[in-house]
Amino acid sequence: xxxxxxxxxxxxxxAIWQRATRVHVGQGAIVEALAAERPGRALLVVDARQPRLPxxxxxxxxxxxxxxxxxxPADCDLExxxxxxxxxxxxxxxVAAGGGSVMDAVALARLFTAAPxxxxxxxxxxxxxxxxxxxxxxxxxxxxxxxxxxxxxGTAAEVSAAATVLVGGHRKLVMHPQLAADVAxxxxxxxxxxxxxxxxxxxLEAILRLCxxxxxxxxxxxPPTADAEARDLLRDxxxxxxxxxxxxxxxxxxxxxxxxxxxxxxxxxxxxxWYLANELSxxxxxxxxxxxxxxxxxxxxxxMRGDTRFGDAERLRAAWAALRAGxxxxxxxxxxxxxxxxxxxxxxGPLPPVDPEALxxxxxxxxxxxxxxxxxxxxxxxxGLYADALQGAHQ
Length: 395
Known about the structure:
Mean pLDDT: 90
Order of helices and strands: EHEHEHEHHEEEEEHHHHHHHHHH
CATH topology of the largest domain: Dehydroquinate synthase-like, alpha domain
Number of domains: 2
Helix content: 40-55%
Largest sheet: 6 strands, parallel
CATH architecture of the largest domain: Up-down Bundle
CATH superfamily of the largest domain: Dehydroquinate synthase-like - alpha domain
CATH class of the largest domain: Mainly Alpha
Strand content: 5-15%
């Protein structure tokens, strides 16, 4: 179809795809990445539960002055990042070595160093809103380079421009380009002791992150090749995990779910499950993936019945078919298949008693009521989702 003047109709502004992180992959990636840094003052922030990491990283630094800080992931909150930012004021670069909580804490600390007013933005409003956007690039001051060394797989925090932070019992999502690391090191030395259960959980996290973005029908800015890459990643994540692939293999695939072309042109707030699981995990005191594994089958059931607020049934079938191409033993039905996969990979399980009504009020306060994350959902809608998820987790 053309316009009267013979020109093709406007399809909206073009999609944008830009990634700032340089990724070093394979044995020796840490040494290679650190060797490329100029001498200067460095801060090494490591997961306190990984006692071997300081030696691995410390031997590779070329800094004229190196300071080591150990952080317990269970203690990571806004104040942790504020304290770290104070130690980054004169640093030339910082290494964040650990899981998603540690990497997020350090990424936020660097943002606070560049823009101290961001701390007040995050504190503002208590539990509302859940989403915080950082300052304009022109408002940023001096800040160190960030090198991320993940010791887990699945979160893709090492390449993400978003981070979560706990503030007074509420977990908020902060989005800003400055949160993305300058360099990420996917090195087997950092994930060698990762147990198989954590590898499977990480793979499922990456799979569901892909599905969150894939299920909604894309708009005009969306290139079809992005769908093809998403389906390839779903297949490869399933096949790599069930065939005994290494942590490095899964780590690379997980990073590609954020760095790759599969993300271009998609709705930034398409992953409704993430916001719901965020509140459930915080209130119930369980791992994020335990909450996610309870919620996703309930959400997918609604999609299959025609609730397009979460996505399209045909797109869910296509995503599941791609996953089954890598793991043919899975059931044909996406809902039953995901429940089977979660059990087989040891993700999820019973949840403690939680009031679904109170939980829904909390979720709407943080992410809904006019905000785009849960736009179109009433408190009643979300309470029903939580009630079904909590009941299903005990079956």
